Each structure stands twice: as C-alpha cells, then as structure tokens.
Amino acid sequence: MRANKPLHPQKQKLSSPNGGKPGYFILPKSACIWFSCGFVSLALLHLFCCSSSGAREAVFSPLLQYVDDTYNFISSGPGGGKSCNYSEGRWVWAPGHARRYNATECNVKWSHNCIRNGRHDTGYLDWRWQPEGCRLPAFDAKRFLSAMRGKHVAFVGDSMARNQVQSLICLLSAAFPPRIVYRDPEPWKCYFWRWAFPTHDVTVSFYWAPFIARATGKAVNESMAQNMNYVYLDALDDRWAADADTMDVVVLTAGHWFLNGAIYYNGSRVIGHHVHDELNASDIIGYAWPMQLAYRMALDRLSSGRPRTVMLATFSPPHFEGRTLTTGCPRKGPYEEGEKELRPVEKELRSLMYEEAEAATRRSGTTRVEVLDVTKLAFMRPDGHPGAYTHGDPSASGVHKWMLADCLHFCLPGPVDTFNEILQQLLTKSQGEVR
Ligand SMILES: *[C@@H]1O[C@H](CO)[C@@H](O)[C@H](O)[C@H]1NC(C)=O
Ligand SMILES: *[C@@H]1O[C@H](CO)[C@@H](O)[C@H](O)[C@H]1NC(C)=O
Ligand SMILES: *[C@@H]1O[C@H](CO)[C@@H](O)[C@H](O)[C@H]1NC(C)=O
Ligand SMILES: *[C@@H]1O[C@H](CO)[C@@H](O)[C@H](O)[C@H]1NC(C)=O
Ligand SMILES: *[C@@H]1O[C@H](CO)[C@@H](O)[C@H](O)[C@H]1NC(C)=O
Q1: What is the pLDDT of residue 344?
Q2: Is the CB of 221 under 6 A from ligand 3?
Q3: What is the C-alpha radius of gyration for the chain, rounded to an integer number of angstroms?
C-alpha cells in the first residue's frame, strides 16, 4: 500500500446511471446544460441547507482533498497557507483518509498495532484534520526526505515521542524502506531506536528521556511504582545529550511523567518533590517548574553548536474514562466541538511550550524553536487509542486485560500520523529555512 495517497479520489469515478445509452427523449443541448446546472444547484442547495454537516463533509471532503492534492502536486513550493495555524481546527469525516500504511509491515511497537491486535472497528481511520484557514496536505515521504537530506532527525522524550517517531517511520517506509541501525532487543522496551534512509542520507532516532533531564527509578525500571522517579535538574539525560551535537532537527515531547510525580535533585541535594506525601509538604514544587527547568536546560544545550530546528510538541491528553474493559476509552468517534473542554492542567502544559519556545528564541539567535501544537487535535480523538487492543483480541481471550487498556497513545495508523503531517509543514515552510 502506498503510504500517503489518499484512498478516496480514485473511488470517485463518475459513472452515468444508464451506462451511456441514448435517452428516450431528446432535449436541445442548451436545455440539457441548463437542466443539469439547475439540478446540480438544487442538489448543492439541499446539501447546504437541509443536511447535517456530516453529510456535507462526506460529499465535499474527497473532492476538496483531491483539489488540494492536485494543487500540491502542481505547485513546487510547500503546501499550506503561510498564515495557517494548524493547531486550531476540527476533524472532518473523510472515509479511508487515515488508512495510510500497514503497521505490521513497518514493524511498530506491538501494543500500538491495533488492527493486528484485533480492533475491528476501524471508523477511527475515517477522519481528517481540517485546520482553520487552510488545508493540511497529506504527508509526502519524498518531499520530507528531500528536505531532510543529510540530516539527523531526533525525537527525544516520553512514549508520545515514541508513538510519533513510529508513525513517521511508517509514513516513510512504504516508499523508502529504512535500515534499522539499532533497536533495543526487548520488544517492550524501545528506549533507543535508530533508522537510516540511505537513499537520502537521513537518520531518524528516538531517545527515551521522559523527563528530558537525567532520571532514575521508574523512568528506567518498569516494575517500580509510578511516582518513584528521581530526577536531576542539573543534568540532561545522558544518552541524548551525548548525541546532541549530531542532531539537526529535534522534536522534544514530555509532560506526562512530570504529572506522575518525582523527587527532584540538584546534584545530591533534594530540591523538592511532586506526589510524594511521605516527604515534607514544604518541599512540594509541583510539575510545571521542574518541567520548565528541564526544557530550559535542553534548549540551552541545543542552542550551542550547529544551527538547528527544535520543535516543542505540546501535551497530548489521555482519555481514560474508567477502569474496565468496556469503559477504558469506548468512544467510537471524535468529540463534537464544545462537547468537552481541556482540563486546566492540559492548557497549562500547552502554554508552557509556547512560553519556553518564545524564551528560547529570545536567548538564542541560531536555533529555530517552534511549537508543534497537537493538544487540540489529540484531545478531540478519544476514539483513536488502542484501548484494550494492546496485545491481542481481548474478546477472544476473555481474561482481565483491562488493566493494560491504553487510552493515551494512538493506534498506528491513527491520529498521531497527523502530528507528522503538521511537522512536515512546519519543517518545510518558507523554503530552505530548515537549518
Ligand atoms: C495558534 O493557535 C494557538 C491556540 O489557539 C495559539 O496559542 C497560537 O498562538 C496560535 N499561533 C499562531 C502562530 O497564531
Ligand atoms: C499487514 O501485513 C501483514 C504482513 O504482511 C499481513 O499479514 C496483514 O494481513 C496486513 N494487514 C492488513 C490490514 O492489510
Ligand atoms: C526494578 O525495581 C524492582 C522493584 O523495586 C526491583 O526489585 C528491581 O531490582 C529493579 N531492577 C533493577 C534492574 O534495578
Ligand atoms: C543547583 O545548584 C547550583 C550550585 O549551588 C546553583 O547554581 C543552581 O542554581 C542550582 N539549580 C537549581 C535548579 O536549583
Ligand atoms: C522535614 O523537615 C524537617 C524540618 O526541616 C526535618 O527535620 C525532616 O528531616 C524533614 N523530613 C524529610 C522526610 O525530609
């Protein structure tokens, strides 16, 4: 399957209902034209006035997508309006739009391969992100690799960073098969992963660093309790920091682990904690300040050395609605506009990225720092998670798999592919700006 061809325009072949046979009565040609125009206008009028917005989208989405792809094909410059804000918009129904690849063939982490794990309802693949004021072009593997020629693209952060890097690899793989340079041998781990695209001399890496900063405890030992993290706010995580000088594009994604709780250090001295009731209440420092310090440290590190682009991906909100198999994340479609509101903490973590990007831009002249704002589009998709389908068909096995329901990461293919479509637009906007 091609990675990035929209599937529907081909289905829109026009066919005449009577198979092209001559009609039983003949009208003058001009009358025919007027009659057809009238009919089409009436049909359009009906569609706009009398049908649901869903039906409207269903009719126009494929058409618009087709027009859009044609436009992108004929224009050599990057698609998307210059003033477009990809972070605001809505999901519109577009059958088959998100069936971009086969996750088994691009070898994704098993727990995100929803279809192979038995998820049969695939309506979550029938939606397209419609930003306000422009069209978001489909991912273009060739254009992405050409723009990144000779570069090292690194994803640094938590499991959402991993989710996104796997989506990117799948989007690229069908057209340009990568060579896996390194992958942790344990299939559940995937702390460090690297691919090479020899055709374009592009390297893509993933570095597990859920606090960006150096951390021990749960961050490196799955069997520990969720809040048992020991984080050093005076040092970056060693693995990615050691490679920082080789990175040309860095996507930083963190947030969830700061909420989970940790004890924070400056060298050997405890400077505070979050979600550790056993410690002194006066030492509570919350999640925002340590997160800010970790990002500042990372951005300072990435501001020295070669010029580069850093993308700060915003918080991707989870959708856990309960603790059972059936209520894990049971939604079968996106939220309606206004149906649910972002929680204050989610808004706060999103704004924090804008603040840090702005502050970093003021501090450094050579590094381009931008926000990859995915919060709204991720928030609107409670239906796109693996849920119970993290490791096989739960209805077939009938055991209590609910404890492992995943309502945070996205299925692959799935809504997370849109993160990379936006990333592509941000990286390629105003030609040659990627440094
Ligand atoms: C895009 O929208 C977000 C969310 O409303 C806003 O915070 C941000 O400033 C906007 N970006 C631009 C470039 O206008
Ligand atoms: C994906 O690919 C695998 C291996 O080639 C194949 O067995 C499977 O049927 C494919 N799945 C879909 C949904 O096409
Ligand atoms: C991981 O944590 C568990 C539980 O605290 C502990 O028993 C185990 O020794 C740790 N493993 C490593 C490699 O540190
Ligand atoms: C850590 O300690 C050093 C030396 O005392 C100090 O300069 C620095 O500001 C401290 N950092 C934090 C985050 O407390
Ligand atoms: C809490 O603070 C008190 C007074 O400063 C100190 O004596 C005590 O050791 C602290 N407890 C912990 C767990 O840090």
Answers
A1: 98
A2: yes
A3: 24
pLDDT of residue 27 exceeding 80: no
Plot region of 215 (φ>0 → left; ψ -120 to 50 → alpha; else → beta): beta
273 vs 283: CA distance, rounded Å: 6
Q: Which residue spans within 121-228 are E strands per DSSP?
A: 127-132, 152-157, 179-183, 192-197, 202-208, 213-217
CA distance 331 to 382: 6
Q: For the residues 378-382, what does the mean pLDDT come to?
A: 97
Q: Are 209 and 160 in contact (CB under 8 A)?
A: no
Residue 339 CB neighbours (<10 A)? 9
In whole angstroms, give the CA distance from residue 362 to residue 369: 10
Handedness of CA 3, 8, 11, 12 (dihedral sign): negative
CA distances from 39 to 22, 34, 102, 183, 324 (A): 19, 8, 41, 59, 52
Residue ranges per structural domain of the chain? 102-128+140-428
What is d(CA 296, CA 289) in angstroms, rounded to the nearest whole number? 11
Residues with CB under 6 A from ligand 4: 233-234, 266, 271, 293
What sign for the dihedral angle of Cα 260, 266, 270, 271? negative
Lowest mean pLDDT among 53-67, 96-110, 222-236, 304-318: 53-67
Atom of ligand 4 nearest to the CA of 233: 13
Q: Where are the alpha helices (DSSP H) in 148-255?
A: 159-173, 238-243
**Beta carbon of 280 within 6 Å of any ligand 5 atom:** yes
Q: Rounded to the nearest whole angstrom, what is the distance from the C-alpha of residue 103 to the centroid of ligand 2?
A: 8
Mean of pLDDT values over 221-235: 95
Q: Relative to the alpha carbon of 120, which ligand is closest?
A: 2
| Tokens linked to 384 | 């796109």
Which residues have a catalytic role annotated?
A: 159, 406, 409
* Ligand 5 center from residue 216 Cα (angstroms): 23
